[in-house]
Every structure is written in C-alpha cells, then in structure tokens.
Design goal:
mainly alpha; 10 helices; disordered C terminus
Amino acid sequence: MPHAAQGARPRWWTELLLLVVVYGAYTGGRLLARGDAQTAVDHGLAILRIEKLLLLNAEHPLNRLFTTTPELAIPADFAYATLHYLVTPAVLIWLFRRRPARYRAARTWLMLSTLLGLVGFTLLPTCPPRLLDAHHGFVDTMAQFSAYGWWGGAASAPRGLGGLTNQYAAMPSLHVGWALWCGVMLWRYGRTPLLKALGVAYPLLTVIVVMGTANHYFLDAVAGAAVMGLGLLLTAPFLRAADRLRARPVSSAPVARAPIVSAGCDTSAGERIPGRRSAPSSADETPTPAR
C-alpha cells in the first residue's frame, strides 16, 4: 500500500460504524458464550491452584487490603466500572486526530485482540474470584461498597441488569488487555513525559484494580496481555489481506472484443488494402513499345 494512502485520515463516520459493529458483535457474542456455572467454577479453582503452585497468588493479599480499606476499594470499584469505557475510546479519538497515519493499524490491533478475547470466553468460561464460595477467602468489593455506585452484585452492571452480563467471562482479562493497548499507544506516540508516564501507569494500575476487587486472577491478566500480543502479530497480515481484497477489480467480466467485419470470410490478396491492388506479376506485364 502506498505511503500516502497509509497517512490519509479515515472517514470518522465509517470508523464509528465499524467500531459500533465490532463492539456489538463482541457484546452479543460474550452473552452467548456463557457456559455452565460448574464448569466455570472448576476453571476458576484450577487457575487458583496453578497460581498457588507457582507462588503467583497475589489476589488474596490485594483483596484483603481493599476489603479493609474503603479509601482504596471505592476508587478502585469506580475505576473498574468506568475507565475501560472512557480511556480506550479517548485514546482512539486521540490517535484519529493526532496520529492518523498510525490509527488504522492501532484500531485493527485493538479489534482483532477483542475478538480473540471472545474466543477465550467461549472456550474457557471462568468464574472470577468474587463468585467463588466464601471459604476461598475472596470478597466482592463492588458488592461490599455498592451503596457508593450504580452497580449491584453483578460486577459493574447497573442494579437490576446483571442478567445482561456474562459474569463468567474472566479469562482473559480484557480490562488488562485494553489498558495495555492504551499504554503502548501513549508510550509510543505521546510527545510529553506525562503521556508516557500515563502509558506505564495505566496498565499497572488496572492489573492491581482487577485483582484487588476480586474480578480477575493474576493469570487472567497474563492471558489478557497474551491476547494483545497475538492480536499484534496478526495485525500486519490482516491489513495486507484487506488491502489485496480492496485492490481487486469490482467485476471480473471478460472484456468485449470488436466484431470481425469479414464474418470469417477471407479477402483476396489484392483487396487487403481498400482501393489498392497488388502489383502485377512479371508474366502479366505488357511491354511498353520503344520510342
């Protein structure tokens, strides 16, 4: 694809429509990929056992800290419920306006990774720590401090709308995946130290928030980063395939040929050029009388 075409700013209305369609497909697919509760609980407990075996179980101490410290838990609950809806679109708009040459690849990376996350929800429904039996030691901070927000006991869903969410879509954590994408964009294309610092802080803060609120395991966060990595690897091949598809002619109908005037009949050698006959042969020549 020519460099000039890459740098051209996409049309905002087509981009908005594309993002709405992809997010709608993601949301609908996530609801359809619910899986049964027992399988999700089994997967959650298996992840917890693996983490304990690898000494990676940071969820318990963080969750205890948040549970006993409302000054941490309440802002973390608001962050979990809102930031991925605010920061991710804000970074997309910033790229669209300030880095149009980079926008298409960045948007494609985000969308491919999101759809890969949907595959993870379908294949591995996972019960988050907050929904495990109480004897496993986790407390749902969003339920504990729900009086401070609009949510109830169904993660960040508004009260009464918990049935419209898939509460077993914990693996991978796209909260972490999207935050990582935002961080990479801010670090690579931000021109001020503040933007670069936010690019580092935002993904790290998101990992702490999702574990402290008991919405995700540490391995969910690792899987969210892995999904983003796979999406990044697929971005360039996907764009090349899209460009080849776009470059194809609209119609492959055969080109019409001009009709043959002679309708297949041969003309004599002397009539190949109209109005001109071939020179007579030496046997047919009439000698010119000498003067």
